[in-house]
Amino acid sequence: MVPIILYIFYKKKIHWSIWPSAILCVGGVYLLSDFSNATVRFGDSLVILCAFFWALHIIFIGKFIKIFDIPLFFGALQALVVASFSFLFGFFFENISFSNILNESVSIIYAGVLSGGIAFTLQIYAQKNIAPSPSAIIFSLESVFAAIAAWIILNQYLEIDNIIGCTLILVGVIFSQILPEVKKTNNR
Description:
Blueprint: H1 2-9, H2 18-33, H3 42-68, H4 71-93, H5 98-103, H6 105-126, H7 132-139, H8 141-153, H9 160-187
Helix pairs in contact: 2-9, 3-7, 4-6, 8-9
């Protein structure tokens, strides 16, 4: 979604290598997800809506970090906003039990500190050096690492479709990174 939003709404010129890379990544995610007998439900619609907002997040972080160059501030601000909204929605829509929170404290700390805090701050810092479209393509490697971790840690079996999907995503990422550099070195 990132290159599409940038191209249509921001009239930004996208390097030609991004389009086939994005197609390879979408095809890879399709093969990794095993949609053979899936039906689209309300939750799936919410995931698509969240993907749209995630694309906007990548675009705006890329724009702001190039202007202000304060990744730790953005990371802290993002964590504060997410924590505030989570607490607010949790207070109104959840049944809060402190004993349950204490029972799941390790998972909550892991998700909050490592996945939420450190990972997103590193993402913000890394986006100083890369445009939003290639950045979004690189983020599609998350599904590859998740599949490999599930194979190693959970002993889940990767079928040939899943392996081809991982390969397509990896090729898409490499394609989006190498081709613009090849053109730069040929122009020197």
